[in-house]
Write a structure and sequence with these properties.
heterodimer, A: Folate-binding fold, 4-stranded antiparallel β-sheet, 1 helix, about 10% helix, globular, B: FAD/NAD(P)-binding domain, Gyrase A, domain 2, Alpha-Beta Plaits, 6-stranded mixed β-sheet, elongated
Chain lengths: ~90, ~1000
């Protein structure tokens, strides 16, 4: 079980959180003209890296904030966590 | 022969003043307080405890603790029965009942032993080779046979009556194992101010200090251990746990420990748990788990009476028990000589067989000084004795040590063997540590760590006491310094122990001349040297493949005594060094753990939380039958007298159509939405337009996922300019909130909107039916309930008896209907009030079944249709999709596949015979006589008995649905073996114009 540092609440056990996927995905602007290919890339296609991965987690059983986690997908090492409007330090 | 194998000394840890009676295989024996089941049986001369897994060979005790591979027993009976318990880990308690397993009719005479005679038929990979063909035999013949033959004990069929608990702990330093290095590190860390947990598997702290003749400072090892424990006990920053096995090491230094709380207590008090599972999140973990002695492979080395030398010593020193009175010590190293000396202390002269040419170790000399001759350059070739060893064939080794040059038969009643020591690296390996091979000790030791884990002492390959203590004190101090600023080191005291000479690299004896007895490597899995040879001959090269093909090192044992001997043998045949062969992966749990402990208190009603509406007690008092809706308990129907479900549901639903019904809808998700950008936010979340919704009006909305699939639906109303009240389905309430939070926090943080769940703040009561207006007018005389005063999709605030109520004119049933919302605390009061006033309007409560019937008849979609595979077009909601604005998921709707005109869409189905109910999930097909595979047009999502037309009615989602209306098709359910001719009709079966809700 991972130990995740919520930027608002501090370190908590994984079972307080839910996973939210790739944090680098940007939703297209509303009303934007967009090709089917680009739209599909946004909706379906995700990289599946072995190693460092920026991802979203949601503190569902806590402060209910979404935030960013930089995690190694192979070792589960968590390098850093930060609020949505911040950047990772490492 | 009661306790005839006890020593005469009383230097151990058992209390001979307290007798304890127990039963093994129906015979009553006694042991003493402090005994294990194993030590008490050995003291009574019982060595035969079980039959081996594959060949059903008679087996006895090999070890004295967790390393025991053979002595697994079935404990207790009835609902407390427990299989595969290692007898060396069971503390004796009055009335304990144990029996042998994997044998029939008895452990002495076991029919299954025929497998041993037929062992040529059961080589490695036997199952893979034998049961391949014919394929059709697998399910009916082979598999049940293997199931019957496999396994050891029997799982109880009755519910477990015991109580188990879970506990979460945090500490700076967790020390696993209380031998010399563990005690030293715990003391150093604790004295430096760190929060320490020290875990010991056994009932006594001290590890090897309990059996080794050593001095630390001016104390014996045993005294020093006891003194250190006293010091630790007095410190508030230390938690000491004995009978506690740390069996798993998971991510981020989460370790899991099982504590045997009351297994050893005769009559534990009622609420004392049997076992407790501790989840320990440790800042640093110190692995001081010691080492396990290795057996030696030789002919018939598995007979009862053949034990590890260290185990024999511990039985004598701790349990005052002799494993035999005519011992042979068989070793490739010096440590077994301490066992010899312990026998000599008890006036028993052992025969010593040493594979080495000579040794000048201190213990060897001491033995020689006592006048005992040692058979150097010798090995055991074979043994005899069916149910218990009675003699050994000792051979003189040739110079290459690859064959025996002479053999002699020697009588004995036990063999104490030692093949050297293997560091217990399981936890380090579980933690992700890449092990390295240490050629000096011929074993793997922890190397590159991935987590905050440090192995010390014997677990780190440091086999001398001085090394162990020095590492313990140093590492304990260094690691604790990460957590405290006291900088208070503890010095390692001087210690003394005998010096040892090097072991010989020989773990497998040659075969005796002219014979091929089995030489076992893995006792638990019945893997012999010949099986490993066969696997390699058949081309298995990777050690992981050899493991799986032969089952070496698998199952509950996890290779504690067998792993390295297996590797060593593979490396010998392959002519590779061991590090090139590599090692298999160690997996949790290190020792078997009861399912009860893993489940903990989450059994029965505690399995999940139960959510009840504030009106729940009324439902109970009025005979409601409940159904689980997620965590909620909802009334399903309210049977009257001897009514069955169908008649109750039809009565309730018909009463809504005819008079008025009342339904508890408190469970619907409710979300309060506030902020200047709230209308814009709703406009993006829902498919329809929200900017111009007037204050005091509600609107039905549908929300999609980005992939275009319908996510949820519900009614949202505008309470003031910037304040909305959203409702969601009961099932999706939590997901919708997370979804809204995601878009507000991650995607559009510029929107000034706040969302908050108010599901539990409001109690909702639906009042539906043609008489609902008259009823509510009487209840709220101040409110104009007319169609003009409170039109469809309108809402009004009012009060009754001082209770504020919000009345929405919304309908799920398709009838004229209202929903009264009050603060949760007043839900029950309001419900009773409506029931009371409603009597004169023939009001009846209706449950979720009638609710479903009403919405299915009307063609209203719900979870069964909104199953994550349907877009608005599919479920008749295309009119809800705005063409003018963008919203979540809109772009997906214009993709090719989503715009095909013959997509599966919603229709209604009526059976041609107007009688046969169509099972939900049925497939819809066109041609009933076609040969499989028959093209499937779609499926039935919801079924009910239409109370309006008094015949069955279903909603289905079928290919090109709109153009199928009027056609006859078949609804088939292969599972129920039925095929029903049906007519396709509109899904809006009742009141398709929707005039009733607006009446």
């Amino acid at each position: 079980m991972l130990e995740i540092k919520c930027p608002y609440c501090g370190k908590r056990s994984q079972n307080e959180f839910s996973y939210g996927g790739d944090a680098t995905i940007k939703r297209p602007q509303l009303g934007e003209e967009i090709s089917t290919e680009d739209w599909d890339n946004f909706v379906y296609y995700r990289d599946n890296p072995r190693g460092k991965h920026s991802e979203l987690w949601h503190h569902v059983s806590g402060c209910r904030q979404w935030f960013k986690v930089s995690r190694d997908t192979a070792t589960h090492e968590i390098f850093d966590t930060c609020k949505m409007n911040e950047d990772f330090n490492v | 022969m009661s306790n005839s194998f006890r020593t005469t000394n009383s230097t151990g840890l058992i209390n001979k003043d307290k007798k304890i009676n127990f039963t093994f295989n129906g015979t009553i024996y006694h042991g003493y307080e402090g005994d294990t089941l194993a030590s008490a049986l050995i003291a009574n001369g019982v060595h035969l405890v079980g039959r081996s897994f594959k060949y059903h060979r008679p087996r006895g005790f090999l070890g004295v603790g967790v390393e025991e591979p053979n002595a697994m027993v079935q404990l207790h009976d009835g609902n407390k029965s427990e299989p595969n318990i290692i007898a060396t880990e069971v503390e004796l308690v009055e009335g304990l009942k144990a029996k042998s397993q994997n044998c029939w009719p008895s452990v002495q005479f076991d029919i299954g032993e025929i497998n041993n005679v037929l062992n040529r038929l059961f080589p490695a990979g036997f199952y893979y080779k034998t049961f391949m063909w014919p394929k059709s035999f697998w399910m009916k013949i082979y598999e049940p046979f293997i199931r019957k033959a496999a396994g050891m004990g029997k799982a109880p069929l009755l519910p477990d009556p015991d109580r188990y608990e879970h506990n979460y702990e945090h500490c700076d330093v967790l020390v696993v194992g209380s031998g010399p290095s563990g005690l030293a590190s715990a003391l150093a860390a604790a004295k430096n101010g760190a929060r320490v947990i020290l875990a010991e598997d056994k009932p006594n702290y001290g590890g090897s200090l309990l059996t080794d003749e050593v001095t630390i400072g001016n104390m014996s090892g045993k005294e020093w251990a006891s003194d250190t424990i006293s010091q630790l006990k007095s410190m508030p920053n230390v938690i000491l746990k004995k009978r506690s096995q740390v069996f798993g090491y998971y991510d981020h230094n989460m370790t899991v420990m099982i504590e045997r709380v009351s297994d050893h207590i005769e009559n534990p008090s009622k609420y004392t748990p049997r076992q407790r599972l501790h989840y320990i999140r440790a800042g640093e973990v110190i692995v001081s788990t010691g080492s396990i002695e290795r057996p030696i492979s030789f002919g018939n080395n598995d007979r009862p009476g053949i034990v590890l030398a260290s185990a024999a010593k511990e039985y004598m020193k701790v349990y005052e028990t002799l494993v035999g009175k005519k011992p042979i010590i068989f070793t490739n190293n010096d440590t077994a000589y301490s066992t010899a000396l312990e026998f000599i202390k008890n006036d028993i002269e052992p025969i010593i067989v040493d594979t080495r040419d000579s040794s000048n170790g201190e213990l060897v000399k001491e033995v020689q000084q006592k006048g005992i001759s040692i058979k150097f350059n010798s090995g055991i070739a074979d043994t005899k004795g069916h149910l218990k060893i009675n003699s050994a064939i000792i051979g003189k080794l040739d110079s290459a040590k690859e064959s025996f040059i002479s053999e002699e038969t020697v009588e004995c009643d036990c063999i104490c063997m030692s093949g050297g020591w293997t560091p217990t690296v399981h936890l380090s390996s579980q933690a992700g540590n890449k092990l390295k091979f240490n050629d000096d000790i011929d074993a793997f030791v922890p190397d590159k760590k991935r987590q905050k884990e440090t192995a010390i002492g014997a677990a780190n390959g440091s086999f001398t006491l001085n090394q162990s203590l020095a590492e313990g004190f140093q590492v304990g101090f260094d690691l604790s310094n990460k957590f405290t600023d006291q900088n208070n080191p503890t010095n390692s005291p001087n210690s003394n122990e005998p010096s040892y000479e090097k072991h010989e690299k020989l773990w497998c004896m040659p075969l005796p001349s002219g014979k091929k007895p089995k030489r076992f490597i893995d006792f638990q899995n019945d893997v012999a040297v010949s099986d490993v040879e066969l696997a390699i001959r058949e081309g298995f090269r990777s050690i992981e493949h050899v493991k799986r093909y032969t089952t070496l090192g698998m199952a509950g044992d996890q290779g504690k005594t067998s792993n390295l001997n297996g590797l060593q043998y593979v490396s010998k045949i392959e002519k590779k060094i061991v590090p090139e062969v590599g090692h298999t992966t160690f997996r949790p749990p290190y020792t078997p753990v009861t399912i009860g402990a893993i489940v903990g208190r989450e059994v029965g009603n505690h399995y999940l939380p139960t959510r009840k509406s504030p009106i729940h007690t009324w439902h109970e008092e009025n005979n409601a039958v409940f159904v689980a809706a997620g965590l909620w308990q909802r009334p399903r129907y309210y049977p009257r007298g001897s009514e069955d479900m169908n008649s109750a549901v039809n009565r309730e639903a018909a009463n809504v159509r005819k008079n008025v019904g009342i339904c508890d809808v408190t469970t619907l998700g409710k979300i309060d939405i506030k902020g200047p950008d709230a209308p814009e936010f709703l406009n993006r979340v829902y498919t329809n337009a929200w900017l111009k919704l007037p204050v005091g009006k509600a609107r039905y909305g549908v929300m999609l996922r980005e992939d275009g699939m319908v996510f949820d639906d519900g009614t949202t109303s505008r309470l003031s300019e910037n304040h909305f009240h959203m409702t969601t389905t009961t099932a999706q309430a939590a997901n919708v909130l997370s979804h809204l939070e995601y878009y507000l926090q991650v995607v559009w943080p510029d929107l000034d909107v706040n969302v908050l769940s108010t599901t539990e703040q409001w109690s909702g009561i639906a009042v539906a039916g043609p008489k609902s207006r008259d009823l509510l007018s009487k209840l709220f005389p101040d409110v104009d309930m007319s169609n003009e005063g409170l039109p469809f999709m309108g809402l009004v605030d009012s009060s009754m008896d001082g209770i504020k109520a919000r009345i929405y004119r919304i309908s799920f049933s398709g009838e004229l209907a209202y929903e009264v919302n009050v603060e949760s605390n007043y839900g029950l009061y309001m419900w009773k009030k409506i029931m009371e006033v409603g009597q004169s309007f023939d009001i009846q409560p209706y449950g979720t079944e009638a609710l479903s019937t009403l919405r299915i008849e009307m063609g209203h979609v719900a979870g069964a249709e909104l199953d994550g595979r349907t877009i608005p077009f599919d479920v008749g909601l295309n009119s809800m999709v705005s063409q003018k604005k963008d919203f979540i998921g809109k772009r997906s709707l214009s993709k090719d596949a989503f715009t095909e005109s013959d997509r599966q869409t919603i229709v209604g189905l009526v059976p041609l015979d107007k009688k046969t109910k169509i099972p939900e999930g049925s497939h819809i097909i066109e041609d009933n006589s076609a040969v499989a595979p028959i093209p499937k047009l779609g499926h039935v999502s919801s079924s009910c008995w239409s109370v309006e037309y008094n015949n069955p009615f279903s909603i289905a989602i079928i290919k090109d649905g709109k153009n199928k209306i009027g056609k006859n098709l078949y609804a088939v359910s292969p599972l129920k073996d039925i095929s029903i001719p049906v007519e396709v009709v509109s899904s809006h079966y009742v009141d398709p114009e929707g005039s009733r809700v607006r009446s």
